[in-house]
Amino acid sequence: MKILVINSGSSSIKFQLFAMPEEKVLAKGLIEKIGEETSFVTYKSEQGQIEAKEKIIDHEKGVMIILSLLTDSQKGAVSSPEEIKGIGHRVVHGGEEFTSSVIISDEVIAQIKKFSELAPLHNPPNLMGIMACKKFLPYATQVAVFDTAFHQSLSPQAYLYAIPFDFYKKYKIRKYGFHGTSHLYVCRRASLLLNKPQANLISCHLGNGCSITAVEKGRSVDTSMGLTPLEGLVMGTRSGDIDPAIIFYLADKGYSIDEINAILNKRSGLLGISGVSNDMRNLVEASRKGEERARIAIEIFCYRIKKYIGAYFAVLGEVDALIFTGGIGQNNAFIRELCLKGLKQLGIILDETKNNTALPTQECLISADNSLVKIFVIPTNEELQIAQDTYRLAQQ
Prior knowledge:
Elements lengths: L1 E7 L4 E7 L4 E9 L6 E7 L2 E7 L4 H12 L13 E8 L10 E2 L2 H9 L8 H14 L4 E6 L9 H4 L5 H7 L8 H15 L6 E6 L3 E7 L2 E5 L21 H8 L4 H10 L2 H6 L5 H9 L3 H25 L4 E5 H6 L1 H8 L11 H6 L6 E2 L8 E4 L4 H13 L2
Parallel strand pairs: 1-6, 6-8, 9-12, 12-14
Antiparallel strand pairs: 1-2, 2-3, 3-4, 4-5, 7-8, 9-10, 10-11, 13-14
Helix pairs in contact: 1-3, 6-15, 10-11, 11-13
């Protein structure tokens, strides 16, 4: 069965076409700068590659381009769109209603629209991709895969904030968590590697956005992101955890709510501390050249991760494995080492040689032989997880 995976952003569409259940990628590509004067298209299949520039005015036109690429007479992966039987859509926010992936109906679309209030930058473009695919591929089973779904197993003690309970009842203000599709995928892989289906795991998704999830017997029981992706770890441009009174203090200094929102989401994190970059690769290079603020940014980043690892160790009581994934987690051995420094008392012991020789594109065990907790590097594959869920639902 041919399954198309769509990740529709505000000005981009990422896509992959899978043959299922073989889990083989037949084609993949990216459309960038949708709505701008010049859009960029990249496409790759076994038959070849295509790169193009053209004006793509909206997501509907973007989906049309994707279908034309997939059916290209020379480099396409299918002979006609009718071969695509299922389409899996990444949807960022599913609120409390969705605890797993679902076949998209009018009711599901209405719910996704409702949750746009909680994810105004993500759900609306996710919906654009859904509506375009429904128009051009009406015969295919459309499936929504929610970033928040994996974390709906959290208990009230983990997801409620200590603010008046009426705010939860009226406005559903609570911890939702994100990166759920990534955490789910790498935790399933870790369980297979451990040969333990109900493992206790701590999953560290570290990239420009970062989150940590505590998984007990295969279920998410706590996670670092909250009502929005702003809570938790220090990230590329997001502050992560701060004293909420900072917001009031800045407001008293004359900053508007919109300005404070932009500061905490776009001008903080690694970028805000270092003043150099939000890219960890640039910061490591700058730190080695003696840039003090870059060094401090790296240390704060790793210190916060270490604190969360310790906290989630306490939550779980017993941990089978720790997982690193995401752009930083998979690629940066130095950051992994710094995050785990001093955790031997918890039974977390890194093998420096294994860590330094780990390949970012392969699943690797990097813990020492005497480590009570296994440490894995597992490349995330959200697209494959979405394809798996879509294939399962499309067969029903």
